[in-house]
Design a protein that fits this description.
The chain is of the alpha/beta class. The chain contains seven helices and seven strands.
Length: 225
C-alpha cells in the first residue's frame, strides 16, 4: 500500500527541489556533498550538538527532538523546539507547568527577494504537523536564517496559508510514495536548475549509454585494422 510508506521529513524538501534527486537519494542511495551541503551540515551540527539547549524563566529550548505524525505517516528530527510558559498552554511529559510550543528550523541563507523559501517552509510545516499531533496543540513555527541572524515567522496561523501547505504536502507525499513503491527514478525536469545540486555527477552520468550502432562501428574498425 502506498500509504504505508513512511517518509522522512527531510526528504520532502529534496523532492520539492527535484523529484529525480529524491529518487536518486532514496532508491539508489546516491550521496555527494558540495559547498552548499557542507555549509548547511556545519550549521546543523552546531544546532544539534546540544550546546544551544537551555532553560530560563522565559523558555526551555531543546534541540534534536524526534517527532512524528501517524496520520500523515511522516517523521523527523527538529532543529530546535522552544517551550514557552503559558497558563493556557499544554502539558509536556517531564516538565512542570503548561507551555506554548514554538518550532525553530535553522537555515544558512535567506532569500533575497522574499521573506522565506517555500522549500524551507514546507519542511517546517511538516514538523508542525508532527508537533501538533504529538502534543495536541497549535505550535508556532519560525525559520532562523544564519546569514542575516534573524528569525522569520511562518504564518501557518492563517487558515488559507495552512490549507495551502496542507494540500501541497499531501500531494507531495502521494507522489513520493508512488516513486518508492514503483522503484522508479523520474527523468530530469526541463526547467530544473541543476548547478547547485550535489548529485549533479550522478544525475548526468559521464558513462555512455550502450549503443548498438557504436558497437557495430567499433567491430568494423577492428576488422579493417
Amino acid at each position: 500500500m502506498i500509504d504505508e510508506q513512511t517518509i522522512n521529513i527531510r526528504a520532502i524538501q529534496h523532492y520539492m527541489y527535484c523529484p529525480r534527486r529524491f529518487a536518486l537519494l532514496e532508491i539508489n542511495n546516491d550521496w555527494a556533498e558540495n559547498a552548499f551541503v557542507v555549509k548547511a551540515n556545519l550549521l546543523h551540527e552546531r544546532v544539534h550538538s546540544g550546546e544551544h539547549d537551555f532553560k530560563s524563566k522565559e523558555k526551555t529550548a531543546k534541540s534534536s527532538i524526534a517527532v512524528y505524525n501517524d496520520d500523515y505517516n511522516i517523521f523527523g528530527i527538529t532543529d530546535c523546539i522552544e517551550f514557552i510558559p503559558n497558563k493556557n498552554g499544554i502539558f509536556i511529559d517531564g516538565m512542570e507547568g503548561a507551555f506554548k510550543v514554538r518550532i525553530v528550523e535553522y537555515k544558512p541563507k535567506a532569500p533575497k527577494d522574499q521573506k522565506y523559501h517555500e522549500s524551507d517552509s514546507i519542511q517546517l510545516f511538516a514538523q508542525k504537523l508532527c508537533a501538533d499531533y504529538i502534543w495536541k496543540t497549535d505550535s508556532e513555527a519560525f525559520i532562523y536564517y544564519a546569514d542575516i541572524k534573524r528569525r522569520v515567522k511562518i504564518p501557518f496561523d492563517d487558515k488559507e496559508i495552512s490549507d495551502y501547505y496542507d494540500n501541497m504536502i499531501k500531494d507531495f507525499l502521494n507522489e513520493m510514495r508512488n516513486i518508492l513503491v514503483t522503484n522508479s527514478i523520474p527523468p530530469r525536469r526541463k526547467s530544473q536548475k541543476c548547478s547547485g545540486c550535489s548529485l549533479h555527477d550522478y544525475c548526468f552520468s559521464k558513462v555512455k549509454t550502450y549503443s548498438v550502432k557504436e558497437k557495430i562501428k567499433a567491430l568494423a574498425k577492428t576488422e579493417v585494422e
